[in-house]
Amino acid sequence: MRTAIEHVGQGYVEAGAERIVITPGERDVVLETEFGTVVRIKAPKVGGGYRLITDPWKVIDTLEKFGPTTVEISDKSTLLPVARWARRNDIGSVLFSHERLDAMLSLRTARPKMLGGEGAQYRPSVATGVGALYRLLSRTYDAVVVTSRYAAAEFDEVTTPLVRIPLGVDLDTFHPELGEPTDDGVLKLVHAGRLSREKSPHLAVATAVELHRRGVPLRMDVYGSGPHLDELEAIAGDAPITFHGYVDGRRNLARHLTEADVALSVCPGETFGLAVLEALAAGTPVVTADTGGARELVDDSCGRWAPANPAALADAVLELAQLPGRRSAARHRAERYDWPTCIRHMLALHHRLATARLAA
């Protein structure tokens, strides 16, 4: 989500819009940057190390001083008062639905389970009781932006003002020319992302473990940090999996992606999947789960998809690794998703809502 907010926000400013971004932080801070004012509001940590703004009135106080024509909100829980404030003051409001709450609640409370002889199985629990919240969100916001058909499915499309706008990828930073995998008979896998349950790194690692159990010569590199590294190391066991931690610089990450034969981005509850697009843009084909928004980003020229269990995903990896022309097809697929197109659609939506409020 942070990557999306940065790219879209930069596009807003470059198009001539004034912008303020308000985020949770360790302490109250105001920063003036080339891409607008950044306000961090002191907020407590919640599950997975994320911070959540619990005082929406601080947000409203900041917005009243700024005087926006529209507000764009990415929080479905504590910031409803901000959307109501916007409506009372004839300010357009957009909910940017970056995640499916039902899927994320389920994945965050899941526990990886080791089954003897079968590797690690990932069994997410089923989250319930969010329907009433979504009906409330539908009535509160002027528009709800979703990035995929999967993301749209949590809303009632009859009563919700849905707008589907896919995100983009930095096609210059992530590029196949940065490298390629060595041809040494070893299958090179990569996973990049936050090491937190809602991103399903456990399932990616368990897939590599399953391939190792089958005797496939492989190496897996995991890039990213997060609260569940110890669980992942336990699942990995003696399989050839290296946890590199946080990668400093997106160019460095792009180079690492180009060096892999297959990227594993297997979260079954992802609403979009920027990690999928970054791998594709780097020329690396992707295996993903057969549910979630990430599945919509690949086709059979550059990816494979399977039920969210290690055995099925391992089969998909082996099939994809033999696919001719997969690297050029991956890049071609990623080129369908660029940031300028996403930003243009978002600016048009903001303009429409601001104009409608002024005319009301």
Structure overview:
The protein is α/β, with parallel strands linked by helices. The chain has 2 domains: 2-97 and 129-168 and 338-359, Rossmann fold (3-Layer(aba) Sandwich); 176-334, Glycogen Phosphorylase B (Rossmann fold). Helices cover 37% and strands 20% of the residues. It is built from 13 helices and 15 strands. The protein has a 6-stranded parallel sheet, sandwiched between helices. Strands 4-5-8-9 form a 4-stranded parallel sheet. Helix 1 crosses helix 13 (339-359) and helix 7 (201-213) packs across helix 11 (310-320). The model is unreliable at 113-128 (pLDDT under 50).
Classify the beta-strand content into a percent band: 15-25%
What structural category characterises the helix and strand content?
A: alpha/beta
User: What is the CATH superfamily label of the largest domain?
Assistant: Glycogen Phosphorylase B
Number of domains: 2
Shape estimate: elongated
Q: Could you tell me the number of beta strands?
A: 15
How many strands, what sense, and barrel or not for the largest sheet? 6 strands, parallel
Helical amount: 25-40%
Mean pLDDT: 89
CATH class label of the largest domain? Alpha Beta
Q: Treating each run of at least 4 consecutive H or I residues as one helix, how many helices?
A: 13
Order of helices and strands: HEEEHEHEHEEHEHEEHEHEHEHEEHHH
CATH fold topology of the largest domain: Rossmann fold
**C-alpha termini separation:** 32 Å
| CATH architecture grouping of the largest domain | 3-Layer(aba) Sandwich
Low-pLDDT windows of residues: 113-128
